[in-house]
Amino acid sequence: METPGIEDMIDFRRLPKDTLVLLLLLLYFPVGICLMLLRIFIGIHVFLVSCALPESFLRRLIVRVMCSVLGMHVRQKNPRSRDRNTKLYICNHVTEFDHNIINLLTPCCTPQLEGSTGFVCWARGFMEVRLAPGQGAIGESLQRYCSTDGTSPLLLLPEEDTTNGHAGLLKFSSWPFSLTDSIQPVALRVARPLIALSTPESSWLTELLWTFFAPFTVYHVSWLPPVSRQDGESSQEFANKVQELLACELGLVSTKITKADKAEHIKRKRHAAPQTSSSVRPGSIGLGFMVPSMGTDERRIAKMAQQVKDVLPHIPLNVIVKDLAKTNCVDITITNLLENKEEASMEDTAMSSFGASMNSTHSSGSAPTIKPAAKSFGKSPADRHLSLQERKEALYSFARRRYIEKHGLDQEDSQ
Most Cβ neighbours (<10 Å): which of 97, 322, 353, 412? Predict the structure, then answer.
């Protein structure tokens, strides 16, 4: 299976591109607004009920039914595979509410590693870790938590950022796999009609409103058998193994793209957007708009060119595509453009050829009468234009003479 790029793993558009689906969304829009307002009112009651009732199976059942009214439907597969002795659940990350969905099925705690603290952290269902900044200190605290008897299992999302769940998984961070030697993988699929599940740099509150606006959002939770660390297996190797298991279960690709790569790509795209909107030159148009009208080879070249463009944003796309057509390799093209070998060799060849031609014509007594550059501009625009015109005519004359000599033509034939 082909490794997807960042563009395939993130939905940058909330609204659909398909004209028919967009038309259906426009027809649904008034209904969606009414649903969103009604669900906001119901959502307040869901929050109050979840706060009032103690942690129990009855509470989770009531809240799960009320969440269905909010349009968040939860389904689970292989619940008997869940090991009640496992202290760590590992799940892929699709939406801002994945931890809430898993918590509707079984009691678990998800630490808040980034973002707001205090009441907002608690209201969103996170466990606040009150420690000084630093991944090591957090890891030690969570490791002690996992070794304590009577505590709820931890739910961690090692991708550390969301994807659209359609193409691949971000590279799993290794530190969650250093907490325990046995983990429970949880595969999460999310489906929603008409609109995307999430977009980059969108707040959790915005995502909640879009969830209330959508007709429904279906969460499919699959419990995989527990996985234990092998003797001599490092945390990163353990993480890679679990990532492959989840990718196979979800039918996705396990990639090496990290959260930092995603953030850098979003940053580049945000800075490139104003340039694209302010200029309509072919070299500055994003290849994403050209891909639908291309063939298979053209789409492949366009995808490779976009990868080179991400690394070398200052290089025009037409230059990148031209070099890729010769090399058919992203790495070689990047090397060529960085070292500028081709352009330098062409320039050296042209200069040496031009110098040799000038020497040969000078030795034969047929040197062109090219007027040297003036030491100062003419006093009037007419004088400056005349000087420039004379140089042009001399250059044209020299080029014509070189062509005649090269092809052995007569002066009369070239007229």
Answer: 97
Structure tokens at 250: 């979800």
Domain residue extents for the chain: 6-261, 279-339, 342-408
β-pair partners for 156: 90
SS (H, E, C) the chain: CCCCCHHHHCCCCCCCCCHHHHHHHHHHHHHHHHHHHHHHHHHHHHHHHHHHCCCCHHHHHHHHHHHHHCCEEEEEECHHHCCCCCCEEEECCCCCCHHHHHHHHCCCEEEECCCCCCHHHHHCCEEECCCCCCHHHHHHHHHHHHCCCCCCCEEECCCCCCCCCCCEECCCCCHHHHCCCEEEEEEEEEECCCCCCCCCCCCHHHHHHHHHHCCCEEEEEEECCCEECCCCCCHHHHHHHHHHHHHHHHCCEECCCCHHHHHHHHHHHHHHHHHHHHCCCHHHCCHHHCHHHCCHHHHHHHHHHHHHHHHCCCCCHHHHHHHHHHHCCHHHHHHHHHHCHHHHHHHHHHHHHHHHHHHHHHHCCCCCCCCCCCCCCCCCHHHHHHHHHHHHHHHHHHHHHHHHHHHCCCHHHHC
Instruction: Choose among 223, 146, 229, 235: nearest CA to 185.
Output: 223
> Which pLDDT does position 127 carry in this prediction?
86
Instruction: Please say whether the beta carbons of 369 and 395 come within 8 A.
Output: no
Whether pLDDT at 250 is above 80: yes
Query: Distance (Å, rounded) from C-alpha 167 to C-alpha 113?
Result: 26
pLDDT band at residue 155 using 50, 70 and 90 as cut-offs:
very high
Model confidence at 282, pLDDT cuts 50, 70, 90, reads very low
Q: Does residue 374 or residue 323 have the better pLDDT?
A: 323
Look at domain 279-339 and name its CATH class. mainly alpha
